[in-house]
């Protein structure tokens, strides 16, 4: 049996899911087994999202990392990759021009990013 469970709580995902699809502005940017995504994220958004999670060993009152920039309005998406205005790995020759496809990365993950599968 399968269910689609939508949440912003990554802790819940870690406990209840086997496979996760990470979405940004309504599009899947990375997909794979929970263990693989949490231990070795591939898409820059997934990496940033996971690094912004609080940890039990964090310094008290330490500033939590955040993703720079503003979330674009879904009806006014940027050209190319929707995450490119906020992406630390932005490549000016392609990211703002073309939308990346979801491609296989390794044995069990897929990512929608020009860092992978670029011809």
Helix content: 10-25%
- Alpha plus pi helix count: 3
N-to-C series of helices and strands: HEEHHEE
Overall 3D form: globular
Distance between the termini: 38 Å
Low-confidence stretches: none
Largest sheet report: 4 strands, antiparallel
Spatial arrangement of strands, main beta sheet: 1-2-4-3
Describe the structure.
By secondary structure, this protein is α+β, with helices and mostly antiparallel strands. It has three helices and four strands; from the N terminus they run αββααββ. 18% of the residues lie in helices and 16% in strands. Strand 1 and strand 2 (27-33) form a beta hairpin. The longest helix has 8 residues, at 44-51. The chain is globular, with a radius of gyration of 15 Å. The mean pLDDT is 91.
